[in-house]
């Protein structure tokens, strides 16, 4: 059976597949938020380094970043030597910030192909999800980074991953060459419109199943969670 590594080398042999039904009104709000966040982090780190240079200290102290901050900051700077050093010193490639963003997410936004390859070679999860359920493939597809899309698919990226807005990577891709790659791979994997619809409806179906189980156990459906909402109110959103 062909492997993911074999897949992209055979794409040119496949006939152009019919365009799958997709949401043309795909939202880019989350991608813009990610880019703004990355830019903000870069600016903050720049200001921090500038401030530290101005400080007149008698005894130099080595700044010790929290593990996740160190890896994310090095990735934002596209500092492959620092990223490599951290990974070789047992830093997990899947460390994330408070928004759930991993270094792989960030590098897929900024198109840092070399670091993406490095992270994946150290076992980074190609299907890591942030707080909005965006995977690195969502980010790369939205930004039209075709090479990163190919690399992620080679490493098992889920073509049917659904984010919090109900969008799959192909829904968010407006770059035609990149979209052709995604759709060709979907066809190669035998993904049908029926399967797409099934995966898109999975979160709602899971909620229905949870409610059914709670009813069967006689549990109160109006219990308020940490966000101040009940399971019943969630089902009406």
From TrEMBL:
Q: Name one GO cellular component term.
A: plasma membrane
> What InterPro entries does the record tag this protein with?
Ankyrin_rpt, Ankyrin_rpt-contain_sf, PP1_Regulatory_Subunit
Instruction: List where in the cell it is found.
Output: Cell membrane
> Which GO-annotated molecular functions does the record name?
enzyme inhibitor activity; myosin phosphatase regulator activity
Q: What is this protein called?
A: Uncharacterized protein
Q: Kindly give the PANTHER family that the UniProt entry links to this protein.
A: PROTEIN PHOSPHATASE 1 REGULATORY INHIBITOR SUBUNIT 16B, PROTEIN PHOSPHATASE 1 REGULATORY SUBUNIT 12
Q: Does the keyword Isomerase apply?
A: no
State the ANK repeat positions: 99-131, 132-164
Which keywords does UniProt give here? ANK repeat, Cell membrane, Coiled coil, Lipoprotein, Membrane, Methylation, Palmitate, Phosphoprotein, Prenylation, Repeat
Report the source organism: Micrurus lemniscatus lemniscatus
- What are the BP-aspect GO terms? establishment of endothelial barrier; regulation of sprouting angiogenesis
Task: Indicate how the chain sits in the lipid bilayer.
Answer: Lipid-anchor
């Amino acid at each position: 059976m062909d492997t993911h590594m074999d897949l992209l080398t055979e794409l040119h042999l496949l006939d152009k597949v019919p365009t799958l039904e997709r949401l043309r009104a795909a939202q880019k709000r989350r991608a813009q938020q990610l880019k703004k966040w990355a830019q903000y982090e870069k600016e903050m780190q720049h200001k921090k380094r500038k401030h530290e240079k101005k400080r007149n200290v008698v005894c130099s102290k080595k700044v010790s970043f929290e593990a996740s901050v160190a890896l994310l900051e090095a990735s934002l700077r596209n500092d492959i030597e620092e990223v490599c050093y951290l990974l070789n010193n047992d830093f997990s490639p899947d460390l994330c910030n408070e928004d759930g963003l991993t270094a792989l997410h960030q590098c897929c936004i900024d198109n840092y192909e070399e670091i993406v390859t490095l992270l994946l070679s150290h076992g980074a999860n190609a299907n890591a999800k942030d707080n909005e359920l965006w995977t690195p493939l969502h980010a790369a597809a939205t930004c039209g980074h075709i090479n990163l899309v190919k690399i992620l698919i080679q490493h098992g990226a889920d073509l049917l991953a659904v984010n919090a807005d109900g969008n799959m990577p192909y829904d968010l891709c407006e770059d035609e060459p990149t979209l052709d790659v995604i759709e060709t791979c979907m066809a190669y994997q035998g993904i049908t419109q029926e399967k797409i619809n099934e995966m898109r409806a999975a979160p709602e179906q899971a909620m229905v199943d949870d409610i059914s189980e709670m009813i069967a156990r006689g549990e109160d459906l109006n219990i308020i969670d940490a966000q101040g909402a009940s399971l019943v109110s969630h089902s009406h959103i």
